[in-house]
Fold these 3 entries.
Entry 1:
Amino acid sequence: MTAEHRGRIVVVSADVGAGHDTAAAELTRRLADQGFVVDRVNFLDLLPRPVRWMCREAYRGVLRWAPWGYDALFAVTGRSRLVVAVLRGALTPLRGRARRAVPPRTRAVVTTYPFANQLFGPLRRSGGLAVPLVTYVTDFVIHPTWVAPGVDVYCALRHARPRTAGPDLDVRTVQPLVSIAFQAATGTSRSEARRRFGLPERGRLALVVAGAWGVGDIEATVADVGAVEGVRTVVVCGRNETLRQRLRRFTQHALGWVDDMPTLMRAVDVVVENAGGLTCQEALSCGLPVVTYRPIPGHGRANAAILAEVGLTRLAPSADHLRRVLSTSGLESADGGMTRCADPAGLVAEVAARPSAVAASEAYRRRSVLDAVGEAVAVLATVLPSIRWTGRR
């Protein structure tokens, strides 16, 4: 069946960090393999420019320079539905832009960013979006900012939990949107992987990851890991070149942005992370033991608590505990059965194939054609009188 026969899917993400976009990219790849045409929409592009800057740069600045502020915001929005409702109301003027971002013949809209739900959810509930709305929750915590009226299905990772008691949600347990390359990387020998990155061929290596922005207490983490006897540190600083330069005094293996993370993970013995997000899921997918240390505020600490409780990671609350954990040669990895859950792309395809979704897609296409004709008639009605007036002169 051709892509045109299966229809279109719109995937809405946001270039805030890398986790939301990476999940969206993997979902796009899987849906394309199933014969869908996929349109990617950056949620931030729907916002006015100053607000766009605030969502990205101010968020990054708060995480880096005032993490306590982000922790407080995460807690407040987690306890009060009113704050989320205010956010939803503030996005109301953008519903027209959101509707225009969904082209004709679309069968479903999928979000991988929580604020997108607060825009597209009410649009779906009011009828402005006729096709199903599905969201893929990138964290292990279903925070209230993910929850919005109008969302048809929530795709959540195994062990994910709602932050607060909310309305009845249609939550489906799915596998992480992690590239198959992380499982395939197990076919690369460790010695070959280490040679690719210029790493020592012998000894235990701990990979410290800091996300795309290099946020958190990374310098302290690298120093504490480096103090563990018999363990050498490799750190990925993302796009934070300033951090990378500072870390050179702690380790000679300070890397910037890495395109081939599957091979790098094959080269190391353990991952030390601080957010419980995409990198953690990637490490678990390729069979690496994961230690959470100095988790970032907000979703980082919330994810860390759940991951440690269900035994997916080891949470080290202090430098001494970190030393004991990393000194243990028998660290085990576990994916908690996540990779055996349903494929989120398959679930989206199932939703998009519902008769109601197909009918809504056709109705939306016809309405789009009528809207285009109406706009053309309106333009002609404006232009023709001026043409006649010019002719009379």
Entry 2:
Amino acid sequence: MKRFFVCFTAIMGVLTLSAQSIYDFQVKDDGGQDVSLAEYKGKALLIVNTATRCGFTPQYKELEALYEKYHAEGLEILDFPCNQFGQQAPGTIQEIHQFCTANFDIHFLQFDKIEVNGENAHPLYSYLKSQKGFGGFDISDQRGKMMDEMLRKQDAEYDKKSDIKWNFTKFLVSRDGRIVKRYEPTEQMSNIEADIQMELNPVLSTIMARRSVRKYLDKPVEHEKLETVVRCGINAPNGMNRQPWIIRVVEDQKLIADVTEVYKKENAEQVKRDSNFKNMFRNAPNIICVCTPSNGGGEVDAGLLGENMMLAAQSMGLGTCCLGGPVRYLQTSEKAKFFLDRLDIPADYRLSFIIAIGYPDEKPEARPRDASKVKFIK
């Protein structure tokens, strides 16, 4: 029997490691039937492990309110009862479902009971934890402080592990299957709702998903897609419709390769330190060069244009990175002058910034943003 459990655990571990996205997993519904999470592609998901006899059990009411408010817009709540925390989810899934409908009138999806930690943890939860580890409780909040003190008594280093800490831990999954965020049970539901709104609104989700990409597939962007990206750029706001910028889109792979060879010779030590170096534009197969008047002005309008293009690219499955270093090099290297000559930039304009663009070969995590820099004057 022990050998069986060891083998089973090993198999589950392999399945988790081989999974490329959340859509690779199957779960059992409340009738014991297999359900592929691929059925929920295109939906925003809130995945939660629940219990019926927990201090957080009233969150069922708040979850149902979220479901009623946003289900029509594409939200699904996937509820997985779990009895691992204080034995607070006793009974069969049918008994749990009856309790939840009788007391909270829930309509979102409830699945069969599972374990979320330990040797028998469901592969789905092993994957979720690998994508978003424990971020800590807000100990300025009374409930967060209580949870921290309780768990630290049991394990002084509990916060260094990615395990699920208690009932009603939640994971938000984007429409394209990214694990966006993990919420501990003490998280304010209003904060979760704000993030759900971001994921359901295609404009907001594009803004929140966009990251600077520095690794690209060796695949040029199709001309038609580049045209679309640029069209979105030139439709950005600009003062009095002066449109004080010009754009050069480089599709010529040889031109990029030729200027890169010059760059490599003049920056040999820097290139040597980058084992992944392919070209001087963060290895992107295409670049968009944005120019502004030499005598100044137009920088704000050019910035708006650039942001429009990068968000358009994100919505089309493309990655971008705004570059300043290559601009400085191109403007100071005599040997790279041929590149600027080929761009045919008017004499009264100068290269302002370059956008690397291509099919991404990485999924960078978001870096923290300092919300304390924002003040609302009422």
Entry 3:
Amino acid sequence: MFKALLLEKDDAGFRAGLTMLDESRLPAGDVLVQPAYSTLNYKDGLALTNKSPVVRLWPMVPGIDGAGTVLESSHPNWQPGDAFIHNGWGVGETHWGCLAERARLKGDWLVKLPAAFTPRQAMAIGTAGYTAMLCVLALEQHGLQPDAGEVLVTGATGGVGSVAVAVLARLGFRVIAATGKTAEASYLQRLGAAGVIDRAELAAPGKPLQKERWAAVVDAVGSHTLANALAQTRYGGVVAACGLAQGHDLPGTVMPFILRGVTLAGIDSVMAPRARRETAWARLARDLDPALLESMVEEVPLEGAVAAAQRLMAGQVRGRIVVKI
């Protein structure tokens, strides 16, 4: 038996709570793991609060991220005692996840825990920070250099935004952070932001082309914010889009693309191939200051995950929530 956070939905409604489960109920997989830590991402928040139809199989153990130890394995790349990281792959949506003392996963989904990180630090990064690094890699692949100009990061006090600000600043970029939490300006400046703007400057409908400002953008917000960021991106710039906190629509035009040569790079973290994941985690180990990482973290126990998810969806969370299993 093991303790797990279980989501249920039936004629009686939606329920989320701790329960004891037998290992025989775990889904198929070639690796049995013991998560030491998990985390709460935006998608986890949607699932735990039933705000969106993220969960596609009921009942569901949520938790798209996990870090801990392999207990049993029939996969050639994994042995009992190995330290692992898991991100994405539909876990917490169609396959039971890591907000539990046990999880059965596929070995092909796992990445070796870098020596630079403890399991707790890996979950302080989680899918949000790993996605942020995928965004940084996309900017670099476009040829972006620190002397190109200012880089905008939207949703900057969130998980993706916080890590993106810290990494980009450490790499020498001049980062401008957009946030609705202007009281958190000092937090963003400690992460390395050179300037902070109110998200209201980007959140309303704007002109198809606006004054050129950003050499590049990391956007976790979508909707009008992304449309305005594109309209303000300088000639030949690149925008990495990875989120939809404001909305999944893109109410813009083709003008930035055909008149300024702007590139819109879509960032998917869920199904990214192993090689890209390993590159992202290796770069996080090199380019993310562990001291700054700790300043982003709030830790909660497994029994506090539902309440923390409610605060996350209410916009009351800064940085990253780590769940101790």
